[in-house]
Amino acid sequence: MSKQTRTSRPGRTGVFLFTAACGLMAGLPAHAAETVPQEVQRLRAQLEAQMKVSQAIQARLEALEAREAADAKAQAETKVQAEQVAAQAATQAKTIAKLEASSGDNGSFTMAGGRPTFTAFGGKGTLQIGLQAQFDAAAYFEDNASVKRSGVDLGDGVNARRIRIPFVFRYGDVTATVTPDFGGSPDGRQNTQYLYEANLAYMPFKGFTAALGYLQPNISLQDAPSSNDFMFMERPAIMDVERNIAAGDARAAVGARYYQDRFFVSGFLTGQAYGGQSTTTATSSVGATGSVTTAISTTQPSNGQQTGAVMRVAGRPVYGEDYDVHLGFSGSKVFSMNQNDSNRLAQNLALSVQPELRVDTSKLINTGSMPATGVYTWNPEVGLRYQNFLVQAEYVEIGINRQHQAGAGLGGASQTPDLTFHGAYVDASWVLTGEPRLYQSARGGFSGLKVAHPFNPETGDWGAFEVAARYSDINLNSHVQRFLAQSVTGGVAGGQQDVIQLGLNWYPNDHLKFMADYQIVDVSKLSGATLQNQAGLRYQAVGFRAQVAY
């Protein structure tokens, strides 16, 4: 309270006592019949009672005034303290800004996102070094009769599937990435090439990226997530065959991608994969009957490289906090084949794939070499997430355009029809600990997990657990009829493979992952001059993977 308020206290007391006295005097006429001593005694008692009430009220007033004074003082002190703290914070902010600017100029080191990160050029430039290491082990349990029939005995063992060390340099809107890869199937790439990517990317605004170099063009829903985020140890076989035609890892490409919250679109012109230029060439000639004869030579260089295009359109037209509905379409086209033929007549293509475990490298289905003038693929995509449950599926068709030639055969001419192969898969994931595989608009697909409670025995936390199931099919047969020679039908008996797969994944934290897969595999393949023999293989397999990535 102010001094003016405190000096008014005697005035309040006097008013009260004057009022009390007036009340007493107003009551005198009612007791005129009483004696003077009695009257005096009664009035004195009333006065004492009124004085006690007045004192109590006065004490209450003083207490209230004291509290108001204390509150005013506390408010004033708090205001001063707040002003002092704000001034200190402003000073600290200026100091931090100066230190950051200084360290950016001279170079600084942090662990952004778990990756060692060096910052320079006033904070405009960064260099990040990452790691992806995947070590696999597998055991195969084959049906003895089918082993004898097929002549294939799969071998147990281990494999360093991927050992990639990304070097990512960013300056402003430009990013340069070089990633060597020391893994493969088996350890080390079979063609001794150890590059996963080497490219430049330009990102002038959010959502748009233009890229040039050796990179992974976007194709299919299974190709959208990083291999760190796989549901199973490998992609479905049909997806690997499709991506290796004109997309895949370390593909020479130029193009762009653009995304917003609801959609993703990308398009790339592509060439050969890194290390894919063969020095082995073929020399072809046309015989009298019109048939093409090809002789292989290693003395001539390749005289033409493959050119093609890859496109993808995807998005989630319906989504909410607990659900995402994904729809998409991917496709690729090879305009010009890799021309390893001096006369540019025999442009050969072979489709094959390893099993959906990469410890044994046997390719159980294989079309063999096919003369081709062009290739195309197309596949629709669909996915649905509800909370921590995800299901997704794709269908793929691969078309081979071939050279048509005349000659003796069924109906008086050899048949060389265009070929069509196909495959599909459906898989599902359920995260037992509740973490969702959220949608990534920047990739046009579903991501991996962000572990809510990393492994910590002291707190009783065990990370995240996920169970998964998949059925996949690939059919590399086209224009095939049993007991009829391929030269008659013009078909290709590459074989068919069906895989039923179950998986269990444990994520101790965001950087560690352990996988266990169980497979039931049925490979059907015809062989012999008239495709009279069954050379397929039936087996079961278990695979394990330990992964570290940051």
From TrEMBL:
Pfam families: Porin_O_P (PF07396). It comes from the Bacteria. The keyword Signal applies. Keywords: Signal. InterPro entries: Porin_dom_sf (IPR023614), Porin_O/P (IPR010870). Residues 1-32 form the signal peptide. The keyword Heme does not apply. SUPFAM superfamilies: Porins (SSF56935). This is Porin. It comes from Nitrospirillum viridazoti CBAmc.
